[in-house]
Every structure is written in structure tokens, then in C-alpha cells.
Amino acid sequence: MSAKLIKADEKNHYRVSKKISAKWLQAKTIHKNGTTGFNADGWLAGAGNGTYFLPTQKVRHGKKVPTLRIGYGAGNWRMAYAYKSKALAKK
Hints:
The protein is of the alpha+beta class. It has helices at about 1-10, 15-20, 85-90, and strands at about 25-30, 35-40, 50-60, 65-70, 75-80.
């Protein structure tokens, strides 16, 4: 199936991927360190690629605050942390 998509994409000068990339997404539940999050994949991502979202806690200004850990790639490499407010994100 993927070989047919790739061949059709090359034949049409990559117009097929532009039409379906915004529509073909999937999300998978993931578990790490006792926490449940999810992985959002694009339509051609394989081997666990995509973006990972896991709720975590970080110490900010001496207090534990909820954060969202954002990772990417097959290895779930940390990319960033998201905070509920700008004040929490500032150092």
C-alpha cells in the first residue's frame, strides 16, 4: 500500500501528500513512568515517529507544578515543556 502511495506521489509531483497529509493522522496511547500520554503520528510516520505528549511535574519557583512534556521521533526525545502560564515558564 505505501509503495503505491509513494509511486502515485512521485508521478503527481508530490501533490497526493499535500492533499492527504492534513487529514490522515493517528494518535496512540503511551505509558511512561506510570503516566499515560499519547503519540500523534502523521500519515507516513512509522517506527513510533511523531510527537509525544506526557503530563509531568516540574519544580518552578520552589513548587511542583503540572507541565506537559513534548517529545518527538522514534526515541521520544524531549523537545520542550509546556506550562499553564507565562509566569511559570519564566526562569
